[in-house]
Design a protein that fits this description.
mainly alpha, membrane, transmembrane, 82% helix
């Protein structure tokens, strides 16, 4: 029970911080004493959310590959969305669709993995 509670508390912390960075980068930067770099905070936010999601998935799923694929699909997809929405802030025009293509590949692998795990 101690381990599960610790995982839930840690996951909640990651999710709250990640959502805050993604939704209100200026507020998070001011609170943390960081310079305001919107795209960096957007990316850091989705990575934090991805870690929290993987922690929650690990409580339900016992298959490590399924857990990391689910976390990767979520995180990388929203990373791609960040690059699409923040393209005016820098980066390459191809970043978002290349990241998105990798998410499609990983999502397909997750589907295959989950089907293989069915009894």
């Amino acid at each position: 029970m101690f381990v599960k509670i610790t995982v839930v508390v840690a996951a909640a912390t990651m999710l709250v911080a990640g959502v805050w960075m993604r939704v209100d980068p200026a507020g998070f930067a001011a609170w943390a004493g960081w310079p305001l770099h919107v795209h960096f905070l957007h990316d850091a936010g989705v990575f934090q959310i991805g870690i929290g999601l993987m922690m929650v998935c690990a409580l339900r799923w016992r298959d490590v590959i399924a857990v990391v694929l689910a976390g990767f699909v979520f995180t990388n997809t929203f990373h791609a969305v960040n690059h699409l929405l923040d393209r005016h802030l820098g980066g390459r025009d191809s970043d978002w669709w290349q990241l998105g293509l990798l998410s499609v590949l990983a999502a397909a692998a997750l589907v295959v993995r989950l089907r293989a795990l069915r009894p």
